[in-house]
Amino acid sequence: MGWPINKGGCCVMNGWMGRRLRVDLTENKTVIEKLSPEYLKKWIGGRGLNSEVLYSETWAGMDPFDPANPLCFGVGALVGSFAPLSGRTTVSARSPMTCTSRGSDTHAHGDTNMGGHFGPAVKYAGYDQIIIKGKADKPVYLWIDDDKIEIRDASHLWGMKIKEATTRIVNDLGDPDIKVALIGPAGENLVRFACIINTYSAAAGRTGMGAVMGSKNLKAIAVRGTKAITVAEPEKFAKASWELREKIHNSPSAIRRTTQ
Fold this sequence. Notes:
This protein has 260 residues and is of the alpha+beta class. The chain folds into 2 domains: 19-229, Aldehyde ferredoxin oxidoreductase, N-terminal domain (Aldehyde Ferredoxin Oxidoreductase,  A, domain 1), CATH 3.60.9; 234-260. The chain has helices spanning 37-42, 45-57, 118-124, 162-173, 185-188, 209-215, 234-249, 252-259, and strands at 19-24, 29-34, 71-74, 89-94, 109-114, 129-133, 140-145, 148-153, 179-182, 196-198, 202-204, 218-224. Helices cover 28% and strands 24% of the residues.
């Protein structure tokens, strides 16, 4: 029995969308790539997908602010589903922070992850991963509306803090359900520990991924998705997810936090 085919023509496993988006800000180009079930099984989860790209597409001694450094946003099979604690996005690139512990100029793989609603929106738009390379010649933001991808001018957003810029993007695009991941002035100014923030407060707070994003002149990524995620056995999945939610809510640590 073969793998199912989704509406985008991709052969996928349940839980995955079977596609990733590549963006080249230098060339102002975007490409949607298909991901095979075999590839998705080999590189489990968003961190696995990102790690494969960094291993294959970076090199020893690479400057984290080199335009060729791939800034990767990966989401796993459970992201966007009913499973509890699953709404995470892993952000990876060569890190501007990793040299400090060794006291050298060798920058290693950096991973961080964030909660919020951005990861599920990426899945609903039809992607398991976003890879961004290059450097725009002026501030830009990426607008992903399912299969419609635009690289838009963000000069008017540059210098804005998180709340102001997020609100401005959502209002400009005219839909309160749009999810935005972005940087503030720290990332714009290449502060090496700068964060990426989504849903106003969910932070990818480690390894300086905000600085890498700023080095590309990328202010934000805005996403709206309308695609469905498939589950092999929806009733069993919902039952198991609900039981796990109840375990979490009734655990001693959760009870302590709600009573403090």
